[in-house]
């Protein structure tokens, strides 16, 4: 049975980690319980070690497609023994985690007639790799160095990962959503059959354009009258990137910016579930300035809520600064 999808803002906006401290996550990363790896859409994601070992084999077709059919790197390696390349690459980065530049140099020494960048790219996309710490730790710096999941986590990949389980995980975070939405989030294609196998376990709806959406039966679905809280989303946040149709996040009185949530160095601001501005933090001599550019259409009544949420963001993100302030200004 299908019904109209609730017109409430995205449910996930209510979720917030309580009393989260950055050093807790740093501890998980240094103890190798959490890792950074190229997964969904071949971009870097932070996941638990267990999820990484399950996600990588599911995402491998995307990585292979990006290398061999969607990238000039694959064409540069035409005719090469890729298996031999990966064996050597694995040996090198398991012996000593290295940067892409270092891997390029070492592989070029072995195959001087081949393009070094393309060979390094192949190793980092066709082998299950992770970025090693201190890269990714809060307020720390470090080169982007790679090794394999086998070396870093000491475990093998999930031998039988289930795409159906990933669909349920996706809907738990982003539902109600369409098949195209999940394909956009994951980079995977031809997921209709897997959704159909789960249909008896799911609820279905129709959006205003008549497109079918799926959701978990137990998922909360607030009424349209419920106001969603202000949220500052980081750059490349999956809330916006996790849907093929992002129109649910844009109010009719606000112009849609180019590539919302995707690129530049700014985050997005959602007010009652709609994109109403962008933000970034500038650090100037231990003085943190949260710069906010409000889009036309942001109701003035919401400015105090935006300011309050901005102060919470400053407290967390600029904890090392002596002073912090908020500036409403065009970028």
Your description of this structure?
By secondary structure, this protein is α+β, with helices and mostly antiparallel strands. It has twelve helices and twelve strands.
Helices and strands, with pairings:
Layout: E1 2-4, H1 22-30, E2 34-38, E3 44-48, H2 49-68, H3 72-76, H4 82-95, H5 100-110, H6 116-126, E4 129-131, E5 146-148, H7 149-153, H8 163-174, H9 179-186, H10 192-198, E6 203-206, E7 212-215, E8 231-233, H11 238-241, E9 267-271, E10 274-284, E11 287-294, H12 303-317, E12 323-328
Parallel strand pairs: 1-6, 11-12
Antiparallel strand pairs: 2-3, 4-5, 6-7, 8-9, 9-10, 10-11
Helix pairs in contact: 2-6, 4-6, 5-6
Order of helices and strands: EHEEHHHHHEEHHHHEEEHEEEHE
- Coarse morphology: globular
Structural class assignment: alpha+beta
First-last Cα distance: 47 Å
**Mean pLDDT score:** 88
DSSP strand content: 15-25%
Strand order of the largest sheet: 8-9-10-11-12
Number of helices: 12
Q: Biggest β-sheet: count, sense, barrel?
A: 5 strands, mixed
Which spans of ≥5 residues are poorly predicted at pLDDT below 50? 5-9
How many individual β-strands?
A: 12
DSSP helix fraction: 25-40%
Rg (CA only) = 22 Å
Please describe the structure with a list of short key phrases separated by commas or semicolons.
331 residues, 12 helices, five-stranded mixed beta sheet, three-stranded mixed beta sheet, alpha+beta
């Amino acid at each position: 049975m299908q019904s109209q999808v609730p017109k409430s803002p995205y449910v996930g906006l209510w979720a917030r980690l309580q009393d989260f401290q950055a050093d807790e996550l740093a501890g998980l990363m240094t103890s190798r319980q959490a890792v950074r790896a190229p997964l969904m859409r071949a971009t870097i994601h932070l996941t638990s070690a267990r999820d990484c070992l399950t996600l990588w084999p599911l995402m491998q077709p995307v990585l292979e497609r990006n290398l061999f059919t969607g990238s000039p790197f694959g064409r540069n390696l035409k005719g090469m023994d890729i298996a031999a390349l990966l064996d050597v690459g694995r040996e090198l980065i398991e012996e000593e985690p290295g940067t892409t530049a270092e891997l390029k140099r070492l592989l070029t020494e072995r195959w001087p007639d081949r393009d070094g960048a393309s060979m390094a790219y192949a190793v980092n996309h066709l082998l299950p790799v992770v970025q090693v710490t201190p890269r990714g730790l809060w307020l720390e710096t470090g080169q982007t160095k790679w090794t394999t999941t086998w070396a870093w986590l000491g475990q093998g990949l999930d031998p039988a990962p289930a795409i159906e389980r990933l669909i349920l995980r996706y809907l738990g975070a982003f539902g109600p959503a369409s098949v195209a939405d999940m394909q956009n989030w994951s980079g995977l294609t031809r997921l209709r059959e897997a959704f159909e196998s789960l249909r008896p376990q799911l609820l279905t709806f129709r959006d205003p354009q008549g497109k079918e959406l799926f959701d978990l039966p137990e998922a909360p679905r607030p009424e349209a009258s419920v106001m969603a809280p202000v949220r500052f989303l980081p750059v490349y946040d999956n809330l916006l990137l996790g849907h093929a149709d992002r129109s649910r996040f844009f109010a009719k009185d606000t112009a849609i910016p180019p590539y919302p949530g995707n690129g530049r160095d700014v985050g997005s601001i959602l007010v009652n579930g709609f994109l109403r501005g962008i933000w970034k933090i500038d650090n100037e001599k231990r003085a943190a300035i949260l710069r906010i550019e409000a889009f036309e259409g942001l109701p003035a009544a919401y400015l105090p809520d935006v300011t309050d949420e901005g102060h919470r963001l400053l407290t967390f993100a600029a904890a090392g600064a002596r002073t912090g302030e908020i500036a409403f200004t065009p970028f």
